[in-house]
Amino acid sequence: MKKFWQRLVLFGLTGAFFVSCISCSAANTASKVPILMYHNLTNDPSAVTSMTITGERFQEDMEYLEYNGYTPLLSSDLIDIRAGKEAMPERPVMITFDDGYRSNYDIAYPILQKTGMKAVIALIGKSIRANDNTEANRFFLKWDEAAEMADSGLVELASHTYNLHNPQYGGLTAPDGINGIQRLKGESQAAYNKRVGEDLKQSIDLITQNTNQKNVLFFAYPFGARDGWMQPLLQKNGIQVSVLTNTGTASIRRGLTDLPRYRITMDTKLSDILPANPNASHDITVRAHMPTMIKNEKIRQEVARHLPAQERTIKIPKSYT
C-alpha cells in the first residue's frame, strides 16, 4: 500500500510538472514577436543596396503578411500585451523603418493602405524637412507627410535621435568604435545626460509639435549601438520600447527594451522568418453562372452563397481546396 501511494504521489508530481511545462511553453510562444527592419525603398532595381529594397519587394512582403493572417503591432499594442490588457494575436509581427526616408511616404505608405499593415517609422529628427521644402531630389520625409501617415493610424512615428548618427563622420561607422548614442571617451555621466538627453528630447518634441501624435513610445538605437546610460533617459522621456539591429525574434516576456530585429534585404526570404499559414484563404474571381461549373462542393456552396451579379473577388479558405 505504501508503494502505491508513493507511485501515486510521484505520478501526480510528474503530471503537474508536465502540465506546467506545457503552460510555460505556451507562455513563451505567446511572448514572441518577430520585428522586421526596413530602411529605404526604390522603384529602380539598379539602386538596390543592403539598406534599400524595391517597392515591388516590399509590396510582396506586405501581401504575404496579409495573406497569411499576420497581425501588425505598434508600440501601444506591445505595452498592453505585456501588461495583460490585450491578448497576443496568433500571428504577430512588427514592421519598422529606420531614418525617415521620402520613400516611406511615396512607396511604403500606399502599400500599407492597400494591405492594412501598420509600421513604426523611426525618424532622424534633423533630416526631416520643412513643409515648404522644394528640393527636387529630396531624400527624407517632410513633416506634413509624416503627420498624414500618423493620422491614418497605420503609422507610428518614433525617435532615431535628432542628430546622433555620427555626423562628424558623415553618418558612417565611427573609426574609434564609439557610435550613435554611446558615451564619448572620458565623458562623465552628467555630461552624457546633457548631450544625449537634450538630443533625445529634441527629437521627441519635433514629432509632437509637427504632428498630432501626442507621445513617442519607441526608440531605435543608431547603428544598433546601445549604452547602459541611455535607458534611464528613455524612461525619463516616456519611451517604453527600444530596438537594436541584432538578428532574432523578440521576446516581450523579458521586457520591451533592446529588442532584436530582422534586417530585410532583397535576399531575405520572409517565409524563413514568418512561416506561411496552411489555413490561409486565397482569392478567386467568380461570376454568377459559375456555381454549377465548380466540382468541389464546399467551394460551390461558398460561391453560390455570394451569388454575385457581376464579376467579383472573394476569399476561399485554403482548406476547401
- Stretches where pLDDT is under 50 for at least 5 consecutive residues are 1-28, 284-290
Helix/strand-derived category reads: alpha/beta
Q: Determine the number of helices (DSSP H or I, runs of at least 4 residues).
A: 9
Order of helix and strand elements from N to C terminus: HEEEEHEHEHEHEHEHEEEHEHE
Strand content: 15-25%
Number of strands: 14
Whole-angstrom Rg:
24 Å
Rough shape?
globular
**First CA to last CA: what distance?**
58 Å
Mean pLDDT: 86
What percent of the residues sit in helical stretches (DSSP H or I)?
Answer: 25-40%
Largest sheet: 6 strands, parallel
Can you describe this structure?
- The protein is an alpha/beta fold and 321 residues long.
- 36% of the residues lie in helices and 17% in strands.
- The protein has 9 helices and 14 strands.
- It has helices at 2-30, 55-67, 75-82, 103-115, 143-152, 189-210, 230-236, 270-273, 297-306, and strands at residues 32-33, 35-38, 40-42, 52-54, 71-72, 92-99, 119-123, 155-159, 218-220, 241-243, 250-251, 262-263, 281-286, 312-317.
- Strand 7 (119-123), helix 5 and strand 8 (155-159) form a beta-alpha-beta unit.
- Helix 2 runs parallel beside helix 4.
- The longest helix has 29 residues, at 2-30.
- The protein is globular, with a radius of gyration of 24 Å.
